[in-house]
C-alpha cells in the first residue's frame, strides 16, 4: 500500500484545536516531576543485557530496546548481547518506508503531529512504559501494534501512542514496537528456493519475535507474561487478526483487541510469489543472481516492489479473484508461517479461548473531511453520487439508512463507514460462533470539535481515548472536558479487558458479550449506550455491493 494513502490503512486528517463543550469540570494536568535519568535507578536485566531508561511522573520509560535482529529477507534471530548497561532512553530506528505525503497538508500535519523518527533496516525495537520494575508485581501487559497497513508507520508515530497515562492511571505495562514493513517485511521470494521460503512473512515473524521478547523479559519490567493483550488499530488491527491465526504466536498473548482493522483474508501465495518474481525481473535480476537483492539500495528496491504490486494487482483483477483486504504488502498464506486465512471460512481454532474486542469508528474514511464541498452537500446531490455505486437500488439504500440514522445530514450518506464495519461484524460473528471465550463489540461515534468539526469520528480518532491521551493529542481531540471524560471511560474499559477479559467499567452501561443473534455493541459518545444490531438490515444490503480493501 502506498505511503501517500496511509496513516493507518490510509493517511487521513485535518484539524485545529477547539475545546469541547464542558459536561463537567475539565481535568487539570498533573504538575510534571523532574525526569530522573541515571544508571543508579531503574536498571533492568533483560536476556540480552542490562538496560537503563528514565523515570518521568513516576513512570519508568524504556525506548529502543532491541528485541531481535535480522538480515534482509531472512527470519529474525535473537539480538546480539551487550556488556554493561545499555542506554535505552530514545526511540530506536523506524522501518524504512515511502515518503509520508500527509506532511504536505498543513491540516493533516497539525492534527496527526507525526513523529517519523529516523529510518534504518536495523529497526527491531520495543518501547516500554511501566509503573514499577523488579517489584514483584504482575501487571497486565498491553502490546500495541501500530497502523499503516503492513507498509508504513511505527510504534512512536502518533502522540496517542505514548504509554505514560495508560500505565500510570491503570497500573498496566504498555509496550509499542517497530517491525519490518513493505518490501522489507513482505516480499515473497519463495519461488527462488528454500533460503527464501519465509521471506513473504518475515514482518509477521518480527511480531512473533517481539511477543517472545515480552514473554521472556516483561516480568523484570513489572508485567505478567501470562497476561498479555495485543491491540492495534487499522493495519495494527489487521496484525492482531493475523496473529490470532499464527501458530508460532500461540501462547504468547492471552487477549486481543481489533480496532478498525478486521482482516479476514490476507494475501494468497500465488499472487505474493508473482509480486516477488516481478520485483526481481524489474531489477534486472534472476534466480542465478537472486542473492544480490540483499544489496540493492532500499529506495530502488521499494520502487521496483511497488511497481510489481501494481502490475500483479492489475493481472489479478482481470482474473477476478482479488478477495484479500490488502493486496501487496501483507502476510501471505504460505502453509507454514501462516497455514490458512485468518478468519475465512471460520475463526481460527487456536485462539478459541482468547477473549477478543472488536470495533470501528462511525465515519472512518470521512469523505467530507477531504472534500470541502461534501460538508454542505444537499440531499439530491448526495443521492446522485450514491447512484454510482448502488444504481437503481439507491433509493432502497437511502430508505434503510434513514431507518438506522433518523434525522441524518446529507453528508452522512457519504461519511458513515461501510468499509470496516461489515468485516468487523463478520469477524465478531465468526468468533462468537466458536462458543469459546467471549467477544465484545464497540462503535466509536464521538465527533471531534476541532477545525469546526470536519474530522468527525474519523479513522484513528479513538486512539487518544484508548490510551487516555485526549489531552496529550489535543490537536486531534480538542482536549476538552468531554474528550477527557470519554478517554477515562474508554481507557478504563481497555485496561479492564486486559486485566480480566471483560471490558465493563464504571461510568459505562452494562456491556454484554456480542452474539450473532444479540449483536450487542457499546456505542461510545458523550453518552454511552448499548445498541443491538442497530444496522443489521443496512449491512445486509451493503454487503451486496462489496467494498474491497486496499
How would you characterize the overall build of this protein?
The strands form 3 sheets. An 11-stranded mixed sheet has the order 3-4-6-8-7-9-10-13-14-15-16, sandwiched between helices. A 3-stranded mixed sheet has the order 1-2-5, with no helix packed on it. The protein is an alpha/beta fold. The N terminus is likely disordered. Helices cover 30% and strands 15% of the residues. The chain is built from 17 helices and 16 strands. This is Carboxylic ester hydrolase. Its EC number is 3.1.1.-. It is an enzyme of class 3 (hydrolase). Keywords: Hydrolase, Signal.
Please give a handful of descriptors for the protein shown.
single chain; 550 residues; alpha/beta; eleven-stranded mixed sheet; three-stranded mixed sheet; 17 helices; globular; disordered N terminus; hydrolase
What's the layout of helices and strands?
Elements: E1 44-46, E2 49-52, E3 54-56, E4 59-66, E5 85-87, H1 106-112, E6 125-130, E7 139-145, H2 164-170, E8 173-177, H3 182-186, H4 202-217, E9 223-233, H5 235-243, E10 255-259, E11 267-268, H6 269-282, H7 298-319, E12 332-333, E13 356-361, H8 367-370, H9 379-390, H10 394-404, H11 412-415, H12 421-433, E14 439-444, H13 450-453, H14 463-466, H15 474-477, H16 481-500, E15 520-524, E16 529-532, H17 536-542
Parallel strand pairs: 2-5, 7-8, 7-9, 9-10, 10-13, 11-12, 13-14, 14-15
Antiparallel strand pairs: 1-2, 3-4, 4-6, 6-8, 15-16
Helix pairs in contact: 6-7, 9-10, 10-17
Keywords: Hydrolase, Signal
EC number: 3.1.1.-
Family: Belongs to the type-B carboxylesterase/lipase family.
Amino acid at each position: 500500500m502506498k505511503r501517500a494513502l496511509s496513516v493507518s490503512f490510509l493517511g487521513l486528517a485535518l484539524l485545529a484545536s477547539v475545546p469541547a463543550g464542558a459536561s463537567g469540570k475539565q481535568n487539570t494536568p498533573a504538575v510534571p516531576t523532574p525526569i530522573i535519568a541515571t544508571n543508579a535507578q531503574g536498571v533492568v536485566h533483560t536476556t540480552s543485557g542490562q538496560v537503563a531508561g528514565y523515570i518521568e511522573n513516576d513512570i519508568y520509560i524504556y525506548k529502543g530496546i532491541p528485541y531481535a535482529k535480522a538480515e534482509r529477507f531472512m527470519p529474525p534471530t535473537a539480538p546480539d548481547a551487550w556488556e554493561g548497561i545499555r542506554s535505552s532512553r530514545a526511540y530506536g530506528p523506524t522501518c524504512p518506508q515511502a515518503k509520508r505525503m500527509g506532511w504536505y497538508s498543513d491540516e493533516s500535519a497539525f492534527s496527526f503531529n507525526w513523529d517519523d523518527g529516523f529510518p534504518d533496516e536495523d529497526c527491531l525495537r520495543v518501547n516500554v512504559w511501566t509503573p514499577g520494575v523488579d517489584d514483584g508485581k504482575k501487571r497486565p501487559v498491553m502490546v500495541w501494534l501500530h497502523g499503516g497497513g503492513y507498509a508504513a508507520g511505527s510504534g512512536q508515530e502518533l502522540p496517542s501512542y505514548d504509554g505514560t497515562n495508560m500505565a500510570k492511571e491503570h497500573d498496566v505495562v504498555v509496550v509499542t514496537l517497530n517491525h519490518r514493513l513493505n518490501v522489507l517485511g513482505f516480499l515473497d521470494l519463495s519461488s527462488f528456493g528454500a533460503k527464501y521460503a519465509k521471506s513473504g512473512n518475515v514482518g509477521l515473524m518480527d511480531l512473533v519475535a517481539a511477543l517472545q521478547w515480552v514473554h521472556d523479559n516483561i516480568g523484570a519490567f513489572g508485567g505478567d507474561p501470562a497476561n498479555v493483550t495485543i491491540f492495534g488499530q487499522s493495519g495494527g488491527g489487521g496484525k492482531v487478526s493475523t496473529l490470532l491465526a499464527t501458530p508460532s504466536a500461540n501462547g504468547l498473548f492471552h487477549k486481543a483487541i481489533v480496532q478498525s482493522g478486521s482482516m479476514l483474508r490476507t494475501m494468497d501465495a500465488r499472487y505474493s510469489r508473482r509480486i516477488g518474481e516481478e520485483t526481481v525481473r524489474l531489477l534486472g535480476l534472476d534466480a542465478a543472481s537472486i542473492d544480490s537483492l540483499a544489496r540493492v539500495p532500499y529506495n530502488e528496491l521499494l520502487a521496483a516492489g511497488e511497481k510489481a504490486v501494481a502490475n500483479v494487482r492489475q493481472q489479478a483483477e482481470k482474473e477476478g479473484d482479488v478477495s484479500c483486504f490488502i493486496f501487496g504488502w501483507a502476510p501471505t498464506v504460505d502453509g507454514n508461517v501462516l497455514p490458512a486465512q485468518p478468519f475465512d471460512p471460520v475463526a481460527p481454532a487456536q485462539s478459541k479461548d482468547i477473549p477478543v474486542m472488536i470495533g470501528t469508528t462511525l465515519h472512518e474514511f470521512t469523505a467530507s473531511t477531504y472534500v470541502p464541498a461534501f460538508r454542505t452537500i444537499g440531499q439530491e446531490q448526495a443521492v446522485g453520487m450514491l447512484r454510482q455505486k448502488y444504481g437503481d437500488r439507491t433509493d432502497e439504500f437511502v430508505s434503510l439508512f434513514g431507518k438506522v440514522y433518523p434525522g441524518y445530514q446529507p453528508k452522512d450518506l457519504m461519511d458513515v463507514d461501510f468499509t470496516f464495519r461489515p468485516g468487523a461484524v463478520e469477524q465478531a460473528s465468526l468468533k462468537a460462533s466458536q462458543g469459546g471465550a467471549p467477544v465484545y463489540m464497540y462503535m466509536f461515534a464521538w465527533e471531534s470539535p476541532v477545525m469546526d468539526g470536519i474530522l468527525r469520528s474519523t479513522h484513528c480518532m479513538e486512539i487518544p481515548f484508548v490510551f487516555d491521551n485526549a489531552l496529550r493529542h489535543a490537536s486531534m481531540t480538542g482536549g476538552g472536558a468531554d474528550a477527557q471524560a470519554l478517554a477515562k471511560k474508554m481507557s478504563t474499559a481497555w485496561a479492564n479487558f486486559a486485566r480480566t477479559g471483560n471490558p465493563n467499567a464504571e461510568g459505562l452501561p452494562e456491556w454484554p458479550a456480542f452474539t450473532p443473534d444479540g449483536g450487542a455493541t457499546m456505542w461510545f459518545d458523550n453518552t454511552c449506550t448499548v445498541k443491538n444490531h442497530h444496522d443489521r438490515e443496512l449491512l445486509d444490503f451493503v454487503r451486496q455491493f462489496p467494498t474491497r480493501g486496499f
